Structure formats: structure tokens, C-alpha cells
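User: Here's a chain of 324 residues. Predict its fold as C-alpha cells.
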Amino acid sequence: MAVEMGSGHPVIVTESLTKVFGKRTVVDRIDLSVSPGEVFGFLGPNGAGKTTTIRMLTTVIPPTSGNAWVNGHSIREDPLSVRKSFAVIPQGHVIELHLDVYQNIRLYLMFHGYSAKEAARRTDEAIERFGLHSLRHHRADQLSGGQIRRVQVARALFVEKPILFLDEPTTGLDPLVKKETWERIRQIRDSGTTIFLTTQSMEEAEALCTSVALIFNGKIVVQKSVEELKRLVGVTRVEIGVRELPGEEIPFVLGDWRGLPGVLAASMNASTLTAVVEGSEPPVAAMIAAVYRHGGSITAVNIERPTLEQVYLRIIKGEWKEVK
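Assistant: Prediction complete.
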């Protein structure tokens, strides 16, 4: 069975998708929706269910219950059409050890439908892009774990499919190759490909993702755009340098600040007033106005906006639970 696809329709949808191993529920009735052309981050700690979810979506393992549709095709009823819709970088080192680097990339591309000539062209480009020239004729069983990972990344990122599944793709890569991988992912995104990315690196998720879902103990905690999540869950730190503020007026300024919407705490140290504010849109204008109202002037304003890592940690630690 296929579901209607097209502009505005999700490219990946799950409906109560569940996987049970023995008595342990690893993925627990999750509902996801991934829009066309986005980089969707699937975040969570080790053992949360990220890789199991990808293995179901890529038809490696069947779900225990529930269903999912990838590019309009059911993973239960039409797994072959699902497989034709994507390329994947799995978490493990899946590679042909008896083939050299060039052969591994070229045959992978031919397996995905490219002619021998086009596969050779793309292989040369992948080898150049990911710095594999010196390893071109090395057999895979002669490579280190990081080098094998680089080959996996290089070949998958030169396959043009509607969907690309990336399961912690930059694990084990050196910083230079990681940066090149990010750039290639952005290029693929800009071409219209939908990317489903699992990662434990909040830096990576923030650099690449337009929206994210957080899975914890097999359950989806939240799915929102990155910016909306920062606004709802994040905490902003505001530091305002002041001068000529009379000492007796400082408690009144801090009182004014603490009465502003979203302000969690306010304090003064030396000549700097500091506030911690819920969300990513602190009432800076009102804070500045309070300083002037009480006889002070402003020397500097510094705003540290929330990061995705901060948001992630607040949710995981149970410091913010009212995600709707």
C-alpha cells in the first residue's frame, strides 16, 4: 500500500511504530513526521532506540506493531519500494572487506543504479572530496575503523536518492573529514533530498538540522523545529554592564528585572547585571529601560542565547517537561 505523496506531504511517517525484543520494548509506539527536503535530527542517549528505529525504517528488521511509510510506501507491505527510495550510512562498519576502496565505492554506486561510467565518475569525485586518494587501492581489511567509516560516508553521500538515512555518520572521523561531511550533507539537503540523521553530537545537530525529535527510553519526548525548541525550552543569559547606578537603586533594578516575563533569576556582580531568562527572546529593552529609570547608564550588553545541547540536557534531566 502506498500513501499519497507530494508537496506538503511528509516523506517519512510513523504510526505507533513499536519494536520489542523479548520482554524489552526498545521502541514504544512512536509517531514521527518528516517533511520533504529537511534535515531531521533524531536525538537521544545510547540505548534510547535511535538505531532500532532506523533499522525498521530501512526494512532491516520488521516492527513488532505499528507501521511506517517511507516515500509513500509501507515498510510492512512494500519494503522493496522503500529500499529503492533511500541510501544509508549504518552505524556499523558494513563494507566489503575483500575489495579495495575504489571498488567498494564504485560497486556500491552501481548497486544503486548508476551506469559503470557514471559510477566511476562519482567514485573519483568521492575519493577526491574525502581525501581517499592514498587509500584508493587499499583493501578494506587493511583500513582502520576511521578509514572504513570515511569510505562508507563517501559512497553514500554520492548516491542521489529521495531520502538519506545517516546513523551517527561522523563517529570516528577526524575533524577535517567531519567538516567535509557536513558540507556535503548541506549540499545534498539543498538539492532537495530529505535527510534523517541520528547523532549524539548536539553540535552536529545544531549545525545541520532544521527540526529534531528526542527519543528517551523508546518514547518520543518532543518533535519540533530547532528554533521553536530553543524558544520553548532554552535559557538565555543576559549580561548588561552599567555605570553611575546608585547603590541604593540596585535592589530596585533587580526587582524590576525579576518581575519581567520569563526572568528566572537576576543578580549584580561588580558593574555587571546578570539575568537568566526562559526561552530565546529575553526582554532586553525593558531591562535596559529599568537601568536608565533608576539613574544608571549602559556600557555593554551581552546575550548568550540557548544552544541545542542546553535544551537537550534540560529535557533529559527532567528540568523542563511541559513539551506540547
